[in-house]
Amino acid sequence: MAPINLSKLDAAIKTLEKDYTHHPSELERDGLIQRFEFTMELSWKLSKKILAENGIDTDIPKNVYRELAKIGWIDNPEEWIEFINKRSKASHIYNQEMAQDVFSGIENFIKQSRKLYLILKQKSND
To answer: Are residues 103 and 109 in contact, defined by beta-carbon separation less than 8 angstroms?
Structure first.
């Protein structure tokens, strides 16, 4: 099997880290939400591939994060499931209140994504 390329996930997380601000304009907030959605997608899809490389087949994003927790690669699957829920909200319904709710989780998502990225990088090179 070809090595899994994690560079896009790393770049997506770095962009979120670099552009994140606690008090964004509406336009900046909306851009951060878009970047969050993109990074969330990369995160679960690459996690799924690396789990499969390690003999764990799973299907939907919530189950990917449950499996990651079972094997100790993440601490709190419920935190990731909340990220998934926020991502779904952002994709299907858009209003100011929802945007603020999604934005409120981005700072923690950045921290958790960086930790997960480092684990995925280690496990994909084993």
So the answer is: no
pLDDT for 54-90, tens place per residue?
999 999 999 999 999 999 999 999 999 999 999 988 8
C-alpha torsion sign, points 19, 111, 54, 57: negative
What's the CA gap between 27 and 23, in Å, rounded?
A: 11
> CB of 114 within 8 A of CB of 13?
yes
Q: pLDDT tens, 25-62?
A: 999 999 999 999 999 999 999 999 999 999 999 999 99
Q: What is the largest CA-CA distance in the chain?
A: 44
Q: What is the CATH number of the domain that holds 88?
A: 1.20.120.330
